[in-house]
Amino acid sequence: MLEERTQPQAPGEPETQTWDAAVVGAGYVGVPLAHTLGSAGRSVILIDVSEQVVDGLNRGESHIVDVPSEQLAPLVESGRIRATTDYDVLRNADAVLIALPTPLSKQREPDLSIVIGAAEQIAARLKRGHLVILESTTYPRTTRDIIRPILERSGLEAGRDFSLAYSPERVDPGNRAWTTKTVPKVVGGVTPECTERAARLYEGAVDTVHRVSTPEAAELTKLLENIFRSVNIALVNELAQLCERMEIDVWEVIEAAATKPFGFMSFQPGPGLGGHCIPIDPFYLTWKAREYDFATEFIELAGKVNENMPYYCRSLVSQALNHGRQRSLSGSKVLVLGVAYKADIGDTRESPAIKLIELLRTAGAEVAYHDPFVPQLCEAELSSVDLDPEAHDCVVIVTAHSQLDYADLVRRSHVVVDLRNATGKEGRANPKVWTL
Ligand code: SAJ
């Protein structure tokens, strides 16, 4: 039976301190996780490659919007939370939670290199009684077939000498309603005892823990959640294109369908999928499914529809300029409004705005953007300009940040292409406004 400490460890001297948990990766998952565990009385050491991140955290300064510094600082001052770049602290930790990126390679295939690197560092310091939990989004059997063999290079056996489980991160950056503490935590271990051990680590810190029978079930749970979004967004994106031909207002239809109190969940058409989850997660499952001679056609079709949206929107802008301004795209001045991947945040990862700007430029347009959350857009080598619709032939609303006055924008613009229904019913009735 693996011995474990059930009571939180009192903070001691850093060099001799033992830790209830080590969290590998001080990012948008790791810092909220450390804060949640620390707030429940656990002692937590964050491990990150960046000296700058580590030093900031040890000063009680948070670089993660979901954990303000004023919430982090008291836990750092009390010694409950600390940060380091040194993996050797794992020798003094009871549990190790991996919260690192799992991106796609240039060939759009899963890239586990960061997680594998961490597993190798952990294996070198693995000890009897350790609990290791992978939280990074990945395809089924990663924990069992990739992480476990690496850890077992230590000579220790998962389930016998140490515990191993998977528990998907469900962090939605900026979401005040649902936090690491309040979102139910799914947990699946390589043995029932591993599941129990991992569940007990989270219990008391996270409000709800949901046990599943295997790591694979937990891994696929996260992918299902995000593929569900990708597929349903693709559905309304396809409908938006059909509605344009049928001269039906897709926004009116979705709004009406959303009045159904059961059996329907509303999604909105848009210029494509951005973010670090939804555009990426489906490819993790598609890639793994091929190993089982299974083509996830439905998932791949959704990906195709979503990836085509920037191209469809480029055509919409061309139409709007042609009919609304008697100009072609080439030589026109286009202002893109909002480049973050979703409203009211500054994250531009995989943002469809980047692709749309590239397509508009290729068509010969002179493109500028305005986004109060994004001062610089490195991918397009642009900086945000003042909001001056009058100085442009067309304004394209790509991300609808809630703080902007869209009625005023329509008044001041020659032509508006609204890809987010930001101008609402009035905008859709305005001859100056083209909508998805
Ligand atoms: N999008 C649409 N139409 C929609 C919803 C989203 O075009 O109806 C676009 C967004 O503009 C964005 C992309 O899809 O470019 C992704 O949007 P998202 O709302 O899914 O936001 P994300 O990427 O931050 O997704 C995260 C996910 N959280 C985790 O993976 C832990 C997802 O599971 C959450 O459901 C989502 O936040 C959320 O609900 O906000």
Strand order in the largest sheet: 3-2-1-4-5-6-7-8
Order of helices and strands: EHEHHEEHEHEEHEHHHHEHEEEEHEHE
- Give me the CATH fold name of the largest domain: Rossmann fold
Mean pLDDT: 95
CATH superfamily of the largest domain: NAD(P)-binding Rossmann-like Domain
- Structural class by SSE content: alpha/beta
What is the total domain count?
A: 2
CATH architecture type of the largest domain: 3-Layer(aba) Sandwich
Q: Tally the helices: what do you get?
A: 13
Number of strands: 15
Silhouette: elongated
Main β sheet profile:
8 strands, mixed
* Unreliable segments of 5+ consecutive residues: none
What share of residues are in beta strands? 5-15%
What hetero molecules are bound to the protein chains?
A: ligand SAJ
Return the CATH class of the largest domain. Alpha Beta
Rg computed from alpha carbons, rounded to a whole number of angstroms? 24 Å
> Helical residue percent?
25-40%
What is the end-to-end distance?
A: 60 Å
